[in-house]
Amino acid sequence: MQKIVESFIRAANAFDVEGALSLFSSDAVIDEVSVGNAFVGRDGVRDYLERFFVGYHTKSELLSLDGLDDFHATIRLDFKGDFGHEIGILKIVVNADGLIERIDADLE
Fold first, then answer.
1. Could you read off the pLDDT of 81-95 as tens digits, one per residue?
2. Quick check: 35 and 88 in contact, CB under 8 A?
3. pTM score, whole prediction
C-alpha cells in the first residue's frame, strides 16, 4: 500500500496524468467532499487529476500514513498550488489487483 501511495503522489506531483491513471481500477471513484462531487471511472479520475492537480499546479507532500494494511490507508497531505495551501485527508481503498478502487478526499 505504501508503494501505491508514493507512486500516486510522485505521478500527481509530476503532472503525469497517465502514470497516475495507471494506478486506478477502471471503475474507481474519487469522492471529493470539499468540492461536493464524485469523480467516477477513468474519465472521472482523469478529470479530477487534470482539474485539481494539473490545473492548479498542485504539489503534495506526504505528512502521515495511517491505518495501513494491504487494502486501506488514510493519508494526510500538505497541498500547495495556485489556490494557496491546504491540508487534505485521503482515505484510499485498493482492490485485490493492487489498483486504487476508491479515494474519499476532504480538507481539514
1. 999 999 999 999 999
2. no
3. 0.94
